[in-house]
Amino acid sequence: MKPSSRLRVVLAGWLALVLVLPARPESPVARPPLPDLARSIRAHMDYLAGDALAGRGSGTPQEHLAAEYVASELRRYGVAPAFGNDGGYVEHVALEYRSLASPPVLSFEAGGQTVRWTSGKEIAVRWLADASISGPLQKLDPSDAQATVKAGAVVLLTSTDDATAWQHAYDISQRGAALVLVRDGPMFEDAWSSAWRRQPKLPPRIRNLPSTAGIQEMSMAVVRDTAFKTLSALTDGTTIRLEAKLNPVQQGETWNTVGMIKGADPGRRDEAVLFSAHIDHLGTKITSHGKVIYHGADDDASGVSAVLELARAMASGPPPRRTVLFAFFGSEERGGLGSTYFREFPPVPLSHIVAALEFEMLGRPDDSIPKHKLWLSGYERSDLGSELAAHGAPLVADPHLGEHFFERSDNYPLAKKGVVAHTVSSFGLHRDYHQPGDTLAHIDFPHLDEAVEEMIAPAEWLVNSDFKPHWVEKPGSRE
C-alpha cells in the first residue's frame, strides 16, 4: 500500500533531516585499512630491534637514537612536537646513578644493646630501593588477606612458602612496606654467595626529584634462621634500620619523545588522550661468550611500533575532537623514569588527560586468552577496557593477575596520580622475556599487525567521543 500524499511529505521531511544531521561522535566509524601497515611495522621493528641499536639500553646513546628515530617518524607523519617548535619532540631527563660502597647493615636495639647484621652474614639483601631505610617492625602472616600493611613498615613475614616468597614480598611492598624480611629457605641458596660477590643495585633517580617514585622498587632481604628467631622475639614497632655507604653519584640522562595532535573541537580540545610505549630495553651484556645483545623485539619495540602506527593513522585522517598525545618513554626498565618525569612535567595539565593506554609486548599471542585477543592490565579497575571492547577493541582482562603487570609498566606512575591508565599487551609469559632470545625471529608478525589494526578504530572512537572513563578500584585501594 502506498503512503498518502501528506504522509509522503512528512516522510520526505524526516528523511531530509536524517541526511543532514551529523553522526553521533561516539558512533563507530568504518575506516579503510591503514596503507602498508605490515610493511611499516616491519620497518620500525627491523630498526628498533636490530643490531645497530644494541638493545636500546636505558640511558645509553642507543636509547637516544631510538628516541630521535621516533621523533623523525612523528615529524614525517605530520604530528606536531608536544613542547612547541622550540622545544621539539625529544626531552632530556637528567638522572643520578647511585652505587653502594659497602654491604648494607641491618640494625636495631634489643636488650639495651645495638644489634648489627651485615649483608652476606646474618642477612642477604636481594633488592634495595634506597641506601638508607628505617621503619617500625611489623610481623605479618602473608596468608592473612585482611592484614593491613603499615605504611613505611619493615615487615617480617612470619610464614612463607619458598615458592611464593618473592610474590608475597612484592605484594607487601606494593601495599606500602619500606622493607620486607623473608626467612631463609632452599629457594635462596644462592643469596648468600651473591651477597658477597656483588652489592645490590640501587635504582637511578631523576635529578631534583629524589623522592618521586615511579614503578615502585622493592627492598627485600633474606634472614638466617637464627636471625629470624631474634626478629620474631622483638616487639612490634621496634625501629629497624638498613643502611649502606654510597659511592660518589654519577650523572646520566634518559630521553622521552612526545608528539601531539591538537584537538579540533573547542569544547573537547582541553581533554587529552595519551598513547604510549617505552623505547628502552636491556642493552648489551658481556658474558664468557662475548658481548650479547638483548634486542627487546617484543619488549618493547612491538609497542613502539604500535603507537607509531596509531600516530600515523590519526595524523592522516580528520583532526580528532580531543587532543592526542603520543609518548615514547625512556628508562622504563630502570623503574619508569621517563614516564615519571612526564607525569611531573606534562605538556598538558595532568588533570586534562582523560585516559592513557600504554602498549607493551604485542609481538606474540598469549595462549591463555582467546585467539585474536589482547589483554588490558587492571581491566577490572576502571570502565575503560569494557567501553573500548564495546567499540571493537579486542580486549579482555589480564589473565596473569599474580604477575602485577598493572604496577609494572609506564601506566602506573600516571595511575598513581589519578589518570585512568592501563597497559595493552598479549604477553603470555614466554621464556624469552628479558633474555637474548627476544629477537625479530620470534615475533609473530601477523599477530602484531592484526593487534595494531584492530586497536586503531577503537582508539579513534576514544579521541572523538564524549566518554570519560572512571576508576572502579583506584590504585592504592588494595593497600
Please characterize this protein's 3D structure.
The chain has 479 residues and is α/β, with parallel strands linked by helices. It has 2 domains: 37-97 and 251-464, Aminopeptidase (3-Layer(aba) Sandwich); 105-243, 3-Layer(bba) Sandwich (Glucose Oxidase, domain 1). The protein contains 12 helices and 20 strands. Strands 1, 2, 9, 12, 13, 16, 17, 18, 19 and 20 form a 10-stranded mixed beta sheet that branches. An 8-stranded mixed beta sheet has the order 4-3-11-6-7-8-10-5. It has a two-stranded antiparallel sheet with strand order 14-15.
Radius of gyration: 25 Å
The name of the CATH architecture of the largest domain is 3-Layer(aba) Sandwich
CATH fold group of the largest domain: Aminopeptidase
The major beta sheet can be summarized as: 10 strands, mixed
**Alpha-carbon distance between the two ends:** 69 Å
Q: What is the class of the largest domain in the CATH system?
A: Alpha Beta
- How many beta strands in the DSSP annotation? 20
Q: Helix amount, in percent? A: 25-40%
User: Given the structure, what is the number of helices?
Assistant: 12
* SS class: alpha/beta
Are there runs of 5+ residues with pLDDT below 50, and where?
1-29
